[in-house]
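Problem: given the chain below (349 residues), write out its structure.
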Amino acid sequence: MTFSNFLVGCLRTALMTSALLWAGWVHAETVLRVLTWPGYADPDVVSAFEKKTGARLEVTFVNTDDELWSRLSTNNGGDFDVFAVNTAELQRYIDKGLSAPLDLASIPNQARQLPRFRDIAAIPGLMRGKRLYAIPFTYAEMGLIYNRKLVKQEPASMEAMWDPQYRGKVLAYSGSVHNFSVAAMLDGSKNPFRLSADELRAASRRLVGLRRNVLAFYSSPEEAVQLYLGNDVALVFANFGTQQLQALRAAGADVGYVVPKQGVLAWLDCWSVTGRARSPQLAAQWIDMTLQADVSARFSERHGLANTVTATSLSNASDKLTWLEPAEDADKRHALWTRILSGDVLQKF
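Solution.
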């Protein structure tokens, strides 16, 4: 082998190695890591996005706000690029740098949302100063589902979950923050999201009483369906709203649904880009695709949740909805909730 041939061979090897390294780098850059709720990233939508962008999606699902916080706060959010979060929780992600400001110019479908969702400045929790951190995607009220065979008269209040006749026949949600707000509303709190020490204590005692009536605390709509079908359940606190109603009816359950006159909590889930996203532009493309009219309409049809782009029968403009806001101390509520689930008695609160 001549020296020139040797140099050519070395150069060829170096170029091949460089090409492989470059290919690996590009591949890493074109993986979009999504953290979201069940139903928000269906396989056909994921496939369409991958085909359109050439990127690969890694989707991780969560079932509670507590799980979402745990997942995203690990490694300072470096494990994900885009996530779904409700407006009540968003501010603490902003506080920790886990959510980054958005550029609306990179999300053109936002201009096609329904009027109430285009007015981003009027929606509590979306902005910090003049910066926008999330785009509304879907929403639902947290009503009450009831078994028509066991509950002969439509419940008039969420208070029905505490009725002694339904002991061991109630399904409740396992999330910590919302349950305190529901209890506080029933106690007449003027602001169920800003509870004083005395109000937190009263809500804790009320939730101990609820625990005595609860058959099980569920985390996902699917789990609630399984529990309902396998037991004599009278009432279900519908944390996932009409999504749960649709899922139960699809499973053959004879159930009704009510938004009590005193009002109920309602959540608004949004898309946000993480502070350590590898490709904010690709994350924005994902958000934009979920806001396509056909994708949004199909989402509502499949999962029984209202969307922010197309008006459907699920769209609820009721003044009985109390939109979720950040809690006064989410960590404290979580700690109290853990004590309640562990079996602490009234006298300890």
